[in-house]
From TrEMBL:
GO biological process: iron-sulfur cluster assembly
Molecular function per GO: 2 iron, 2 sulfur cluster binding; 4 iron, 4 sulfur cluster binding; iron ion binding
InterPro entries reported for this sequence: ATAP, ATAP_core_dom, FeS_cluster_insertion_CS, HesB-like_dom_sf
Name of protein: Iron-sulfur cluster assembly accessory protein
Signal peptide limits: none
Positions of the Core domain: 7-102
Naturally occurring in which organism (per UniProt): Sagittula marina
């Protein structure tokens, strides 16, 4: 059985800072075909769906749809605030390679 993705406390803190739960929203992490390496991440605020895996801490939630879940097995969802910008990041053990921007990968 594959491990579900995990979410760092820093990612949940950022969701709280932007008030995602106050708006009835969750951080949706999905995998789509495309990008320069074959697959790309789609990360956005969205309402949770009935079939989504929900990872929650307090009132904040991260959701993953059933189709994306196998591609994110064992992944770590984090938030990085660096000089080049602030963004949610994904450390994916299933990715065999990724592009320089970190939003596209291959398996």
């Amino acid at each position: 059985m594959n491990l579900p993705p995990s979410v760092t406390p820093r990612a949940f803190e950022r969701l709280s800072e932007i008030g995602a739960a106050d708006q009835g929203m969750a951080l949706r992490v999905a995998v789509e075909g495309g990008g320069c390496s074959g697959f790309q991440y789609d990360i956005k605020l969205d309402a949770p769906g009935a079939d989504d895996l929900v990872i929650a801490e307090g009132t904040e939630k991260v959701v993953v749809d059933p189709i994306s879940l196998p591609f994110l097995a064992g992944a770590v969802i984090d938030f990085a605030d660096e000089l080049i910008g602030a963004r949610f990041t994904i450390e994916n053990p299933n990715a065999t390679s990724s592009c320089g921007c970190g939003t596209s990968f291959s398996i």
